[in-house]
Write a structure and sequence with these properties.
Elements: H1 2-15, E1 23-24, H2 26-33, H3 39-42, E2 47-52, E3 63-68, E4 74-77, E5 80-83, H4 85-91, H5 104-118, H6 122-129, H7 137-144, H8 154-165, E6 172-179, E7 182-197, E8 203-210, H9 213-216, H10 219-234, E9 238-242, H11 250-264, H12 283-299
Helix pairs in contact: 2-4, 4-6, 5-7, 5-8
């Protein structure tokens, strides 16, 4: 809260020195909009400001000026003009690439947050396609394919990416689960929910629950979690917890994938264990790097 108030104050002071057609954009817009930020993005403490391309770039100490060829939708955030959610997602494509702070996983996590807030992901695609060759377009479009509506946190998004890239079916996100014996009784809301038939035609019901340490380590919350888990399991659900350590590092990610595959009765031989590692570069960027290396090898 204190950090946000400090940012708002800094933006208000800077706004008084900005031309009237300016708006806060890029990383600054993401912060003001409350979008999830990667560690690399957090390190950029400059204020990002955008103006139309026909105007001069803003040049002030501590300010990164941008000029926009295409118009952006601007919203009011606590009295500040801020590029809106969908256009900010597209703008962050400019920060993709070697030596820059945004990778494809970051764009998926950001996109999940944007799409969930808008209750649709198509506005992201529409804004991207409406521009003439926006920077990072290939990465944006590749990220868009993995964006889903319904994620409640960045770590939930990451958990979903690990499991689906690894070969598991798509779960539904933050789905209310009602008792099989009484459809008016809510047993809970599952972060990641699967209802499916296994190879033998049996119904499999699995809930993946991300347990953030800040929220779920509290004693009272653990008791509440236990009651909810007991209710779900009594109704035939297999509740699989996901903790932060389960998502960090290749070994932990692969173990998490295998654990969920067992719960869902998915054969191990169908899994793509190598695909669960964190991704920063798009497939296109990786292909280009391989081609460059092959050319160097051939010339050498």
């Amino acid at each position: 809260m204190a950090a946000r108030q400090a940012l708002l104050q800094e933006c208000r002071v800077t706004l008084s020195a900005l031309p009237a057609d300016s708006a806060f954009s890029h990383v600054t817009a993401a912060r003001l909009l409350g979008l999830p930020m990667s560690y690399a993005m957090e390190e950029d403490e400059r204020l990002h400001v955008m103006r139309p391309i026909v105007r001069n770039r803003v040049r002030l100490p501590g300010v990164m000026g941008h000029r926009a060829l295409h118009a952006r939708q601007v919203v009011d955030i606590d009295g500040l003009p801020v590029v809106d959610v969908a256009d900010t997602w597209v703008d962050l494509g400019e920060l993709v690439g070697r030596g820059k702070p945004v990778g494809i996983d970051d764009l998926v996590v950001l996109g999940d947050a944007c799409a969930t807030r808008l209750n649709a992901r198509t506005p992201l695609l529409q804004r991207c396609l409406s521009r003439n060759r926006p920077r990072g377009k290939r990465t944006l479009l590749e990220a868009y394919e993995e964006i889903r509506v319904g994620s409640a946190s960045p770590r939930e998004s990451l958990a979903r990416l690990i499991l689906t890239r690894g070969g598991l079916p798509e779960p539904t996100l933050n789905e209310p689960i009602y008792a099989s014996w009484d459809p008016t009784v809510l047993l809970g809301v599952g972060d990641l929910v699967w209802r499916m038939l296994d190879l033998d035609g049996r119904v499999v019901k699995v809930v993946g629950e991300y347990q953030g340490a800040l929220y779920h380590s509290d004693d009272a919350q653990r008791v509440a979690d236990g009651y909810r888990r007991d209710g779900l399991e009594a109704d035939g659900w297999d509740v699989q917890e996901i903790w932060n350590d389960d998502l960090n590092g290749s070994t932990s990610r692969r173990a998490t994938l295998v654990r969920f595959a067992d719960a869902l009765r998915v054969p191990h031989e169908t899994l793509r264990l190598a695909d669960v590692d964190a991704r920063f570069f798009s497939s296109h960027a990786i292909d280009l790097a391989i081609q460059r290396q092959m050319r160097r090898t051939a010339c050498g």
